[in-house]
Amino acid sequence: MSVQTRQRLWSSGRSRRLAGAFLGFVLAAAGYLVAWRVVDRSQPGRWSEEMELLECDLGELPPETKVVRTIPLTNTTQQPLTIRSVQRDCLCVAEALNDRQILPGQTIQMRIEYLTPALPGRVEHAIRIEYHETDNTTVVLLSGVVGGWADVRPAELDFGDVCLGEASEREVAIRLREPLPLREATAVVDLEHAKLVHSAVDQAAKVLRYRLRFEPPPSAICKDYRGDLVVDWPTRNGRQVRVPCMGRAVPRWDAEPPAAFFGVVLAGEKRRLDIRLRARAAVTQAPVSQAWRLQSRLDTCFKATLATGTGPNAVVSVSLDAAAANTRGFVGGELAILDGGGSPILTIPVSAYIQ
């Protein structure tokens, strides 16, 4: 067991799969190694703004088996902590504590029992611990890969960041340990903007290979997409493999700075900001077009112009005349850059505080 210090509120990678439930923390997989990552809470004034994250990698797991692990919970603060509640995201996980009060520097043990599913593939679950004395929480993230009658490599398909109108492909191999007829397998891609582009059967090695393409169109919403590749044998007692799939659709262009924030502006003052638009490195063809136009959803004190010029870059100039503001306080809105067909290319937030 290794101990590391780390604080995380949100990051990238696999954490997208748990974003809705527990702020989207990254799950690691490294055999039977258990890695605990603990927030540094040496500053009491920040204690109400931090979260403790404990990651437990269960390694490779047999199907339909009860797995037991013991997790140490250490109070690294200067005050006693009393556990108020323990929440689980699945009834397949059960926990038991040898104590509910943890003195400063004391460690208690939490016993975890996890009933693995019958289907092979990656599994992820979270346990959230709350305390009476603070709003802070401890989140225990459990992860592992269920083996058994099929091996899936890789355990998940992550397409990464894909620009609108671009494509990314990934391949997965499923090796069977049971004498199932390979050609009876049916594959369905349950991921928006993704499709199956190639499949192959290796009878000698008992391996199914699938290649998927994630291709968000120019009109797609820029966000994280999650789903599964489902491989099924309908006539074989419900034998099924689910491979988690994920990808992030991102704009073809970046704005620098990403938002036009004028800060505090005195009444009657005038200011101007220039925002440069740059094509992302992954974009193979992203010419600046004279047909681009701005769609303004700003207060009347703002004016915006778009200069495309020549070359790969464009500039959006935003000016603010505080004397034309209808109100004091926060003003602003957003600018949408549209292509010749009226589809949005990028949206830029604009804001200021008129004093």
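the 2nd protein, sequnce then structure:
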Amino acid sequence: MSPDDPPKASESLDLDLAFVTPIWRILEQAPIPFAVTRGPTHTLVFANTAFRAVPGLIAAPKPGRDIADIFEPTAAARLIVFLDRTAREGAGLRDRFIGSLEFGSRPWNCTVWPLLLDSTPPRGLVIELSMATHTEVAQSLQREVAERLLLSAL
């Protein structure tokens, strides 16, 4: 798939090409990992070159594959929480901490926004992945400790 060619119908899972092509052309050039999903199982419609190169993926991010099938199960579960929330509420979530994508690797954040166009519910979701900063990791650990303290107090 080259940046100049729009995805084929089979690659876009019969999603309206008028919907996929403009987004695809922009996101394919991005140096940041981007993917587009659709449906309740978050079936992958598109993944740019940077997304396909993300360390820790357990399967190739190909169109038609559910997002849960390409990440390690615990990382997939954390990501799916944000995808489900965005799909349900129709509002984007920015820089949400999802942790390591594989054991011992650097932690990641995700940003998810709905592709609303003229439809509700969203016609798809856009996922952006970025490495978490030291501050975000520290805040996540503080939240985790606070949650454990609250649970132990019950």
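Confidence is low (pLDDT under 50) at residues 6-14. Residues 56 and 102 are 5 Å apart (CA to CA).
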